[in-house]
Amino acid sequence: MPSKQKKTSKSAPKKKAPKISPTAKLKEEIKSLKSEVEKHSDRFLRLKAEFDNYRRRKQEETSNLLKYDGEAVIKQFLSVLDDLGRLESASAENGESNKETLHEGIELIVNKINKQFDEMEVKPFTKPGDTVDPELHDALMMRSEEGKAENEILEVFEMGYRYKDRVIRHAKVVVNQTPS
Description:
The chain is an alpha+beta fold. The protein contains three helices and six strands.
């Protein structure tokens, strides 16, 4: 029988790496992949939570902007409405020849503005006889009148107004104060 001889090369001897079984290699790779999955999963959850918070904040901001978007415009109209009311009162007291025409014109303007306010959910509040509420009223003066209750509103200088659920202008009033 012919004998087989191993061929040897004359190159430098190689260091052999420790032999790892295929199963051990797979377990090591699985462990590495699990670690990477956990890292990415944690990062994903944090990004998702951050995005959810961002989306919620932006939605609230947008909702509030839309809910109260006309407030500045309404505040500008309030002074005009007050001036028209004063003009109406003054023209009613004066004996001018065009008194009725002026009075009707002013009344039409005031009604038109009030109609617009109703459509925009702007509501006036406060009338003489109401009880003063510091959340709604600014007491400009105190006066004492017989037969009136303590803290009863005697006169309204400027009406108060609400826009939806927010007070946008406090009523300016004269309040009854009984003598002590």
